[in-house]
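ok so I'm stuck.
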Amino acid sequence: MHRKLRATITILLAVATGLQGCSLRKAKEFQFDPDFSHYQGAATELSSPDVETISYEEIAGTPSPLTLSDDAPPDFWNMTLDEAIQTALANSQVMRDLGALVLQSPDNIRTLYDPAIEETDPRFGVEAALSAFDASFESQVYFEKNDRALNNIFFGGGTRLFQQDLHSYQAQLSKRSATGGEFAIRKIIGYDSNNSPGNNDPNLPWLVQVEGEFRQALAQGAGADFNRIAGPDGRPGAMNGVLLARINTDISLVDFEIAVRNLVNDVENAYWELYFAYRDLDAKIAARDRALETWRSINALFVTNRRGGEAEKEAQAREQYYRLEEEVQNALAGRPSDNVRTNTLRGSGGVQASERRLRRLMGVMASDGRMIRPSQEPAMARVVFDWEELLVESLNRRAELRRQKWKVKSRELELAASRNFLLPRVDAIGRYRFRGLGHDLLNSERQAGRFDNAYQDLTTGDFQEWQLGLEVQMPVGYRQGHAGVRNAELQLNRERAVLEEQEKQVVHQLAEAVAEVDRSYGVSQTSYNRRVAAKQHLDALESGYQDADENEKTRLLDLLLDAQRRLADAETTYYRGLLEYSLAIKNVHLQKGSLLDYNEVYLSEGPWPGKAQYDAARLDESRRKSPRLLNYIISWPWPVSRGPVEQRIMPAVDRDTDSRPVPQPDQPTVPETPPATEAVRDAATGAGVLRNAAFDPTRVSAAPIQQ
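replied:
not stuck anymore, here's the structure
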């Protein structure tokens, strides 16, 4: 008893010593630290990952953008809408958007790799689902050396000192069928050499077995339809069959189509926004030049102290000029705006801002010293759509509806497969086996004696075995099965309700688009008449102002300045109406699902575009120049990090003692005398340069007004 107690205490001490040696740090008595020095070390820090990246010269060497401070005239890049769309699609591995989603939520952005990623998903992809039916080869080899002292001679086969050499070799080839069956053929070799007195003389340690086996589901899990939907390992609520995986790929293709459609839609919107910006700039420059001439004439009277040149009149004309000059500057540079998708004409971006927005969607450099200029005119011919045809086409071609129909189909298949789990598990099993026993495993010299070698005995076919059976498993109540069927029914009803609501939404959007076509066409005709009337009004006032005496000029000045503004607004409104009509036609095709056809865009799996081949060549060249990148190919990608990120920390400033001067805005200076026309154009921060390059208003003519 004392011996056992000492042994137990020794074991406990050894375990305690091992646990103490495995501790991370030695326990210390808690001590209060008034300086909190234990918080001075950083547990985490910003670091930069060590990854393989390529720096493109066209990105790193982007020139500065065009601004108001540029006086030199830019080179113009005349571009049609088809060229803009073609360039955008050729440069779009990532489907761009105006909201910079690629920076804010890069996981939610659509790319051209998404369908292939969905197809090759190792968990839920089509190939992953098909792999469940692949043939599988398995092999096991075990070796044992047993040396035991047994208390009972019966367990040792006649000896209490049992010694044994035990080997086991097994190889198996198995295959699942599409109907839910499992088939296997295996070979088992065993070697059992021991000192049991009951062994045969001579000893026969080798045993060889060759057997074939099958297991076929007859109720639950049976049938090709079930296995293609749920997969051979499917469970209620967790199905991953080939059909469901293929539907997921089809949904991914529809999502890609929607992303391409949205990109084409954004490019077209941005193209016409830039067109309107040029037209708006041209109208504002013309109004500014008229205001300048008026200011010059009144300033001449003001300098000579003549009637009609009173100080308030001169200031009023000067204010008119600078007001229009401000509008020219804003029309040239543009104001910052929310980068969100919209299918209506905003018309507040300005030439330079709208041009940069179009460049971003096209995937070209933000600036290259050129200015994109639209060379295509908007549609002016009246277009009439047939409502019944539009309605049928939208309900059949809209990509969002097609995606939802795929989801409905997926839920229908899941419901059909879920009903299979309400059946009992009934499996028919069968096995057939050949056995062979021998002193040796294989003897090249075939002996006449029985059991000379195991393979010789196997081929005689004297020892054959077979087995047939039936296994039944049935949960009482089928609680999980009924819950799975009810959940599948609810999921299907939900998707059908969503599809119905989507169809209603599509019809509403289509109705709004068709109504907008009619409205925008009528407004474009009205705005053309307004533009003609405003031009005639201004011409009459200018003619009367030139021929009027000094008293009459004083009375006509307010009318003249107001007419100049009215003409500028009328021209801007006219071009806005034209572009709203073009966008309305485009929106009808967008709502009925034919926008890609409208822009002659066809989606197919084909050769890589030139941009992809260029990127691949650049990647290959960079790898040749950087030998260390070979480590990523032939070994694990270490190191993980390149060290902390360099951060620039501004020194703290005491607000009470800070004596740095506060910058003051420059005070505007008003010239005492009006500059010459050319000087004003040069001082208009580049607007005068664009004046000659902007569109000629006479190039666009409206259709005759029907009385």
